[in-house]
Amino acid sequence: MINKESVNKARSLYYGFLSKMFIFTTSADRYLGINEALEVMIQNPIDENSGEALKEIQAFLNTYTQSALIQEYDDIFHNPAYKVVRNTASYYDEGVESGHQRLAVKNFLAKTKIRRDENNFKENEDSVGFIFTFMHELIELIMQDQKEYENIQHCLFTEVINPFVDEFVINVYEHPMAKAYKSIAIVLNAFITFERMYFEVAKPPFKEKVRVQKPVEVISGAEAKRRAENKAKKMAGLEAKVERAVR
């Protein structure tokens, strides 16, 4: 069993780092402290593979600077020239950008002293970056002996993060413009595995979700079966590729 108090500082560091990787903000100090965080995490990685991924992120920043990281972020999450990666829990839950999961996060927020800075943080409360920032702040409060927030962090992970994060990791890892973010996805995957042990919660089974309905196409039964088999093989291949990468 994990000694939870002894690992909270490391958990806060990881959530703080990941929030900077995934949040959209106009703040000038967007990446403040990122180099120091990388140094600490590289010296104490969760596992060997994520340790190598952290070194790759550091090398990318040393070679191409933070501007290149911002451009890659924009290409993955905002550039319409590519299939953008959706980054809200509601989208993965319901196929909409502002749904029940956004309301759930807002309800959790209402039970705390933490609030979204709307001047700098433009995305919804259930966006990946904001959720990670929220978890970082909750852990910081818990380390200040405000134990009433332990249940909120548990619910935020088990009810909001855990159900969708695996699909999000795959989408980031497989994006054609992902370079540094391929490594970031590996680090996130390793950290989520640790968090599941921390909260004693299982990885949920993959569920294909209904998105926006397309016009009905009349096809034969044999063709429908062929397409379904190909789609299943594709998804299995994506998951296997990410699993191999993060081992």
Question: Can you describe what's shown?
Answer:
66% of the residues lie in helices and 0% in strands. The protein has nine helices and no strands. The longest helix has 30 residues, at 48-77. The protein starts with a helix and ends with a helix.
Features:
single chain; 247 residues; mainly alpha; 9 helices
Approximate strand percentage? under 5%
Query: Biggest sheet, open or closed, and with what strands and sense?
Result: none
Number of helices: 9
Helix content: 55-70%
Radius of gyration, rounded?
19 Å
Spans of at least 5 consecutive residues whose pLDDT stays below 50 are 210-220
Number of strands: 0
- What is the molecular shape? globular
Spell the H/E element sequence: HHHHHHHHH
Q: From the structure provided, what is the oligomeric state, counting identical versus distinct chains? A: single chain
Return the average pLDDT rounded to an integer.
86
Question: How far apart are the first and last residues' alpha carbons, in Å?
Answer: 22 Å
> Which class of secondary structure composition applies to the elements?
mainly alpha
Brief account:
With 247 residues, the chain is mainly α. Helix content is 66%, strand content 0%.
List the helices and strands and how they pair.
Layout: H1 4-22, H2 34-43, H3 48-77, H4 89-94, H5 100-110, H6 128-143, H7 150-174, H8 180-199, H9 221-246
